[in-house]
Specification:
There is one protein chain. This protein has 6 helices and 7 strands; from the N terminus they run αββαββαβαββαα. It is α/β, with parallel strands linked by helices and 137 residues long. It has a single domain, classed as CBS-domain (Roll). The strands form 2 sheets. Strands 1-7-6-5 form a 4-stranded mixed β-sheet. A 3-stranded mixed β-sheet has the order 2-3-4. Strand 5, helix 4 and strand 6 form a beta-alpha-beta unit. The chain is globular and about 45 Å long. The two termini are 26 Å apart.
Amino acid sequence: MPTAREIMTPDATCIGAQDTVLAAAEKMAAMRVGSLPICGTDNKLKGMLTDRDIVVKVLAAGKDPASCLAGDLAQGEAVTIGADDDAGEILRTMTEHKVRRLPVIDGHTLVGIVAQADVARALPDPQVGDLLQALSV
């Protein structure tokens, strides 16, 4: 079974916890991605910020994205996967936590992101179908 390191999208770009949500949205648009890891000044992962978070927690709540900080949207400890964990562990973690994207950690360093699409490309159809079903509930 492939490992997270083998199927991840490498070189994940962070948004700083002290950066604004507007800056995060601009970065997402420029990179054509729907999420960014939130990293603190210590370069440690603080959470994930998604385009849905921006819409629901900022725009729909009437907050100003130019003054709201990305770090304010980080909730608790981020769900991650180890770089050498196998695809079975990726599937279990995504299913258990109902997440479509997992930051990949090697030691304490963020090395990439495994997205649902990465899993779909790397694994046989039945396993992907099970994941899609679990995340769609």
